[in-house]
Specification:
Blueprint lengths: L2 E13 L4 E3 L4 E2 L3 E16 L5 E4 L2 E2 L1 H14 L9 E7 L9 H17 L6 H8 L4 H8 L2 E5 L8 E6 L7 E5 L7 H7 L6 H20 L3 H20 L10 H15 L4 E5 L5 E5 L4 H10 L5 E3 L6 E2 L1
Parallel strand pairs: 5-7
Antiparallel strand pairs: 1-4, 1-14, 2-3, 4-7, 4-8, 5-6, 8-9, 10-12, 10-13, 11-12
């Protein structure tokens, strides 16, 4: 009999991926880089004394159960999600989109399943290939810190590895959660119809090298500029796809405009977004509280965050 608990942390993708060249293995077209947060997470508990798969708020989560099936089958062939029960919750609670809860959930659940079905301490780089089957971003959340997902040609070559942490760059984030009804999977498919997709793949791959160099070099300004550029490039793809999908909202634009005002006044503040309207403001310890106050004065809830760790068992 086994009962275990874990925590996985959300991440901000600094260089984001869109589109998958293999949906069953969830292989992206190019590398991506992210940083884990400290203020938003998924907490989960697993037990083989009960059955039914993944539950949230006492209700089964169909999408999570479906994605976790591949994870469980990889960890222990023949095992099934229905053979145990996982109770999961995202903190803080809310209906925001683009925060990164699929990544934190995938990391926490993969770690739990490995502990229950295999035991011992996993090699996170190796296990990231399994977490990727839940969500490609979960591979990066699993290893924590500043991490890079290498987009290989096959399963073995597509894995995540941490290359830096807060001792290399003490990045601070102000996270402004915003709601949306757009599904990430919808956006992944939409970008493939953009006439600029091939150019995006080349640009993002090059930007990963530039971003990693900036992080290792403790260059917050370069990191901020690169993340802004990547954000605008990513969202331009969804807007130029077949269905002309606009994920930004009026609130998003208001916050971006305020961030630019703060920067013009001398603050270290740079906006960043994922697949959703939620805004991350990349900043420093010196300016994080002022940035948070400025956003809250606009009527938005904001959360402070530092560089977060890898997924962990309690």
């Amino acid at each position: 009999m086994g009962k275990y608990s874990s925590t996985g942390y959300t991440m901000q993708a600094l260089v984001k991926y869109h589109g998958l060249k293999d949906w069953s293995l969830r292989l992206p077209y190019h590398d991506s880089i992210s940083v884990n947060t400290t203020s938003m997470m998924t907490e989960a508990q697993i037990s083989d004394e009960a059955k039914g798969g993944v539950f949230m708020g006492g209700k089964p989560v169909v999408t999570a159960n479906s994605r976790l099936e591949a994870v469980v089958g990889r960890i222990k062939p023949g095992a099934r999600v229905e053979d145990f029960r996982i109770d999961s919750k995202n903190l803080p609670r809310g209906e925001a989109k683009g925060v990164g809860y699929s990544s934190s959930a995938g990391a926490a659940l993969t770690l739990l399943c490995h502990k229950l079905l295999v035991g011992g301490e996993p090699d996170l780089k190796s296990l990231s290939r399994t977490a990727r089957l839940f969500a490609a971003s979960a591979a990066r959340s699993l290893v924590g810190g500043f991490s890079r997902l290498y987009a290989g040609d096959d399963d073995e070559g597509t894995y995540a590895e941490k290359f830096a942490d807060a001792s290399d760059l003490d990045l601070r984030m102000v996270i402004v959660p915003l709601p949306s009804k757009v599904r990430t999977e919808e956006a992944h498919k939409e970008v493939l119809t953009s006439p600029f997709f091939d150019a995006r793949v080349r640009s993002a791959q090059k930007r990963c090298d530039e971003m990693e160099k900036a992080i290792r070099g403790n260059d917050i300004d370069a990191v901020g500029v690169l993340a802004e550029r990547d954000t605008l490039e990513l969202h331009s793809l969804t807007m130029t796809g077949e269905n002309r999908l606009v994920i930004m909202t009026e609130d998003t634009i208001r916050i971006i405009s305020r961030v630019r005002e703060l920067r013009s006044q001398g603050a270290k503040a740079y906006f960043s977004m994922q697949t959703g309207p939620t805004v991350f403001v990349n900043t420093t310890e010196e300016h994080e509280k002022a940035v948070k106050r400025a956003v809250e004065k606009m009527g938005y809830r904001a959360y402070l965050s530092g560089v977060g760790p890898e997924a962990r068992l309690a």
